[in-house]
Amino acid sequence: MTVYGPRADCLKPLNPLRPAAAVLGRHVHPRRKRPRPTGRISSVHAIDPGPASNKLLAALPRTDFQLLAPYLTSLQLAEGTVLHEAGGEVDEVYFPLSGMISLVVVMRDGKAIETATVGREGVVGAMSGLGLHISLVRAIVQLPMFGSRISSPQLRKIAASSKPVADLCVRYNEVLLDHARITAACNALHHIEARFCRWLLQTRDRAESDTFKLTQEFLSEMLGVRRTSVTEVASKIQADGAISYSRGVIKILDLEALKAKSCECYETLREQNGD
Ligand SMILES: [Zn+2]
What we know:
Layout: E1 11-13, H1 18-24, H2 55-59, H3 62-68, E2 73-77, E3 82-84, E4 92-96, E5 100-106, E6 112-118, E7 138-143, E8 145-151, H4 152-161, H5 163-189, H6 192-207, E9 211-213, H7 216-223, H8 227-239, E10 243-246, E11 249-252, H9 255-261, H10 265-272
Antiparallel strand pairs: 1-2, 2-8, 3-7, 4-8, 5-6, 5-7, 9-11, 10-11
The structure holds zinc ion.
Zinc ion binds next to helix 6.
């Protein structure tokens, strides 16, 4: 088997023609590029929803969407998959169709903290469509998900001839900057318990489920705190009856109680996402 890169064992291409064909019918041209090698994914459990389930793609004028569709490949992405590394080249752009991707700033000593999350309202790496080739953050899959992938050079070609596609890249970058500003303020000003609850609520929305898998190691990285702090907070919220947390699986038992414990940033970020 040919291995194309370190991420190849985490990616599982689906039939690359099916989603675009489902949307565009017989006008779709077959995608000639060979899909990446398949890999094993144990925890993806849904049916590919197709590219139109991404809100940015769905909002494009049909003729502009048709420019992209033949080059979009649907993939299953396992949690923990690193799509872009901080400081690395962005050669592919991902439109989430479900699940959640975290954008994480990585310090020189390896410590990291989340600055934004991206679900099917967004896109990861889109500024490479306008020539920004280096990722400023690590993009890591938080929840098992489906995504539509397009190569950066191809997106660049299309953005050069389609104003709506170019606008999509710029506008969503502005949204991400706003997310980063809110998250920076949240990390600095709000108590870890409120941030923990905000994060669980965001994840619940993206997972579209009250139950999801999260390790303490992952949570500590996203919140920029020690694992022991995550354990203490999780235990306290569990004792209050808002969640259960066992063996890396979180179950939200009392949504309203969790909202009451969360900071205002949950609602602010939801509004920005148009939810
Ligand atoms: Zn906050």
